[in-house]
UniProtKB/TrEMBL annotation:
Biological process, per Gene Ontology: glycerophospholipid biosynthetic process
Broad class of where this protein is predominantly found: cytoplasm
Residues annotated for sn-glycerol 1-phosphate binding in this entry: Y176, L177, E178, A179, G180, S181, G182, G208, G209, G230, T231
Protein name listed in UniProt: Geranylgeranylglyceryl phosphate synthase
Cross-referenced InterPro entries: GGGP/HepGP_synthase_I, GGGP/HepGP_synthase_sf, GGGP_HepGP_synthase, GGGP_synth
Known role: Prenyltransferase that catalyzes the transfer of the geranylgeranyl moiety of geranylgeranyl diphosphate (GGPP) to the C3 hydroxyl of sn-glycerol-1-phosphate (G1P). This reaction is the first ether-bond-formation step in the biosynthesis of archaeal membrane lipids.
UniProt xrefs under Pfam families: PcrB
Compartment(s) where it occurs, according to its Swiss-Prot or TrEMBL record: Cytoplasm
Pathway linked to the protein: Membrane lipid metabolism; glycerophospholipid metabolism
Cofactor field: Mg(2+)
Keywords, comma-separated and alphabetical: Cytoplasm, Lipid biosynthesis, Lipid metabolism, Magnesium, Metal-binding, Phospholipid biosynthesis, Phospholipid metabolism, Transferase
Catalysed reaction equations from the record: sn-glycerol 1-phosphate + (2E,6E,10E)-geranylgeranyl diphosphate = sn-3-O-(geranylgeranyl)glycerol 1-phosphate + diphosphate
Amino acid sequence: MRFRGKVYEMIRSGVDKGLKLHFTLVDPEKIENLKEFSNALRKVVDAGTDAILVGGSLQVYVDDVERIVKLVEEFNVPSILFPGNPMGLARNADAILFISLLNSDDPYYIVGAHVTAAPLIKRIGLEVLPTGYIVVGNANTSVSVIGKARPLPYDKPGIGVAYALAAKFLGMKFVYLEAGSGAPQPVPPYFVEKVKKAIDDTILIVGGGIRDYSKALEIVNAGADIIVTGTVVEEKIDDAIKIISAIKKK
Ligand SMILES: CC(C)=CCC/C(C)=C/CC/C(C)=C/CC/C(C)=C/COP(=O)(O)OP(=O)(O)O
Ligand SMILES: O=P(O)(O)OC[C@@H](O)CO
Ligand SMILES: [Mg+2]
């Protein structure tokens, strides 16, 4: 909880200095061995990852989330909850990525989950990071299916711009373009570029399907401020390290 209340400022000041940031996504459902997990954390932190996102699409025991956050506390990086439902509200985290899935067909994912979670978030005292979450691409990913998204086609960046601007005008501090965890193709750089040009200083997060450093670099060069990787950390940690190192050299 050491970073509570400082997370937005840490991100903002990095972005304002022109740095590119990397967040590592950890899905509590996938962690079986805490020792192995801690070793992986050490590697991504040493490589320079800027925060650990903790969450997934499915319901989890809050104890499991809290256990993971506790391990993250041993390293010098903030823990940010990234829950797919209100069950993931760990008391010991620094902040919560308060995502509204703007292109969901179900109001629950736009504002419903948020209403049920808000009083508890206040009670816990989590720092809230208001985020317009936009699902892009044609893959049937967990977030798309569970979140009842109507994903934006890759060849319609203008619609991405419209959603992202609406998020900015609603006062959201972050726009997150999401291809979905494990997506075969990440959000294309030309899509990222159009959205970033439109939202200007609003912080742009891009994730889903980023598996190699050259793609990650193309996406940051197109204007992403923050890259999120999850699957590559679970499956090929050495490639994850290469991605983080490449982004941090920018
Ligand atoms: C504000 C609160 C309390 C909740 C938000 C509720 C919303 C809007 C959810 C959006 C839809 C959703 C299911 C988001 C999950 C995002 C996420 C962390 C995805 C990671 O996906 P994985 O669970 O790793 O998928 P795989 O297992 O397929 O890799
Ligand atoms: O697992 P990957 O494909 O890296 O996706 C990360 C994240 O954007 C999913 O929410
Ligand atoms: Mg995943």
